[in-house]
Amino acid sequence: MKIGLQVPSFTWPGGGAAIREKFTEIAGSADDAGFASFWVMDHLFQIPMVGPAEQDMLESYSALSFAAGVTRRVALGTMVTGVTYRHPGVLVKTVTTLDVLSAGRAYLGIGAAWFEREHVGLGIAFPPLGERFERLEETLRIAHQMWSDENGRFDGAHFRLAETLCVPPPVSRPHPKILIGGMGEKKTLRLVARYADACNLFEFLGPERLAQKLDVLRRHCETEKRDYASIEKTTLGTVLLAPGKQSAADVIASCRVLAGLGVDQAIFNLPNVHEIAPLEVFGKEIIPAVAGL
Fold first, then answer.
1. For residue 151, which of 141, 166, 138, 173 has the smallest C-alpha distance?
2. Range 206-212, long-range pairs (CB < 8 A, 24+ positions)
3. pTM for the model
4. How far apart are CA 96 and CA 106, in angstroms?
5. CA–CA separation, 248 and 239 (whole Å)
6. What is the pLDDT of residues 33-61, one digit of tens each?
7. Is the peptide bond before 176 cis (omega within 30 degrees of 0)?
8. Which of 91, 5, 11, 105 is nearest to 58 (CA)?
9. In angstroms, how far is CA 216 from the centroid of its own chain?
């Protein structure tokens, strides 16, 4: 099993002036500790589950490009990009650039988008959910076309591209991994089976419901004639390594359960990540212990 790190908040001691230095330290420490991946949210305002909208929030791909320059091996992605924020052709070009400049370390993490406040606040269109899923599927098709030898037209219901040209191509082969975030059984997991290289589920569901979601994904794979084993299964959870909270042994035990369900990569956010010590515990105690799961 691999371990990933998500950084959902940039509100740390020192305020905005200290973000660059602390973000550099966190990304570099995660890379040194052996984390397999490094993720930031693709949000423009802070989300309610993390803090007030007025808290510090960095634009995701700028942050990931910066992280690419201060790391050597860790994979980089958004957890996850809202399909509404960028035109698909621009999004694919952006991820391709990240992949080229990071020497093949980019993921395209993507989902249907949900945070209406930031859309309204910044004047971004927020279509109904059904249309957002239609746009998501077209975006996935555009990504596959732009990352292929086909650079001709794309004509969809929502997007029309005269040329799907993408030069230079990504370094990753055959292309950066596409990860779809979300747990909807009828639409989201069907899109995973049809288009994605990875899925992401919330760990808080618990083992029984996670197993149910993975069973649904397996059935979609059968319908799509897709090899279920070829899809990377990831989870997202929160770990607070601190006295009286959680220990390294607790995290290792949770990873054993997840691995038993077939999860390939457990991604965690750490509320006290700015202290750096939790990253060191992961590197010394947790990542080596779960590597063989």
1. 166
2. 207/257, 207/260, 207/261, 210/235, 210/258, 210/261, 210/263, 211/261
3. 0.96
4. 8
5. 10
6. 999 999 999 999 999 999 999 999 999 99
7. no
8. 11
9. 21
Convert the pLDDT of each residue in 180-218 to its tens digit: 999 999 999 999 999 999 999 999 999 999 999 999 999
Rounded Cα gap, residues 245 and 86, in angstroms? 39
The answer to whether the CB of 179 falls within 8 A of the CB of 232 is yes
Structure tokens at 283: 């590197």
Domain assignments of the chain as residue spans, ordered by start:
2-290
CA-to-CA separations, 264 to 3, 85, 199, 291, in angstroms, rounded: 9, 29, 10, 10
Rounded Cα distance between 177 and 143, Å, is 11
How high does pLDDT run on average in the chain? 97
Contact status, residue 76 vs residue 102, Cβ threshold 8 Å: yes
Cβ-proximal residues to 170 (8 Å cutoff; 6+ apart), any chain: 95, 96, 99, 100, 104, 106, 147, 176
- Domain 2-290 in CATH 3.40.50.300? The answer is no
Pairing of strands 2-7, 37-40: parallel
